[in-house]
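A further point concerns the way the authors explain their paired sequence and structure data. The central task, working out the structure tokens from the amino acid sequence alone, is never made concrete. I therefore recommend that a typical entry be quoted early in the introduction. An entry of this sort, consisting of the sequence and the corresponding backbone structure tokens, reads as follows:
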Amino acid sequence: MKKDEIQTFSYRISQANKTQLIVIMYDMAIQYVSDAIENNYETQAEKDEYESDVVQVKRVVDSLVTSLDMQYEVSVQLYNIYLVMQRYLVKAVAKKDKNTIMLLESVKKMLETMRKSFYELSKQDDSEPLMKNTQQVYAGFTYSNDGGSNEYSKGYENRGYKVLMVDTDPQCNTTKVYRAKIDGVATLYDIIFSGYKASDCVQHTNYGDIIASDKSLENSDTQVRPSPTMYKYIKKALKEVDNNYDYILFDTPAHVGILLGNVLMACQRIITPVTCDSFGIEGITDFYETIKEYQEDNEDLSILGLLIIKYKGRQNLTKDIEDNLLPDYAKSMQTKVFKTKIRESVKCQEAQTMRQSIYDYAPTCTTAIDYNKLIDEILDELKED
């Protein structure tokens, strides 16, 4: 969406009453889906823009869902239509082809049909504009004092702390969630291979500050020349910006190598995810051996806790692991098992497909609630250190 179109929508929102606001939301969704359909999808920039447009349509549809009053039959009918749209958009975000174009065109047709109906209703609504209840307005969402703003913004407040995210995973998933750039900007790759300063690589996004990863890092294990400082590139670079942040977080790759080694030399606390199964136990055992090797050179390195993820409740097969095996392993690793467990949810999987934060996609789902509890538990733990 172009800058002048965003400004127009923002102005319309500021003048709209409740029914008019719904019409505007339809207009925004129609504009975004139209842009996605017309996108050439050739360059990486066009592909990123396509993905962003589809995500924006999904966000508007999500907002329309939360606005429904389900005690009315018409709301139930609208909910079912929105649900179909959501499914189509989740499928469409991954890539653009003939099938996804058909899905997007179906979404556009449904939006235009409903927009027409609400436009007729808006002609009969002479209520006052809602702007007096609005805290913040931008094209895509309206956050209101009496709406869902607290749930949506909760995940991004960082609890008043200044936080830097460093994405060291070549898959770039965190980079994509932050909507950070990769092409044409300095990334973690430039810190490791070109000696860039961290300040040259920090991107200030709507989701927070981040040093983006780069797919070129996939071959870093073979590209980095062996030397005494090969595991200290990140630590050295971050010294420049260390005082600018209360916390620096790392998203790490799954395998042990030059990137994970750099993180273990730079960080002080590790949160180790684990599943309640034999594979999860084997994984943390192997990882702990790696950690002990790096603790010889990084005396500040310790495990803050073991975090149970993909939790499905207390099942017979996992009770013994949860109650006995994990606590024993944690004790031998001189750490603990976090009280908070991250429950598995379909919404979390869908958010990953949409490359959105769970706080954007489904802020009231069990996974989002669990992560908020985890943040509280972690902060309490750090205050005691």
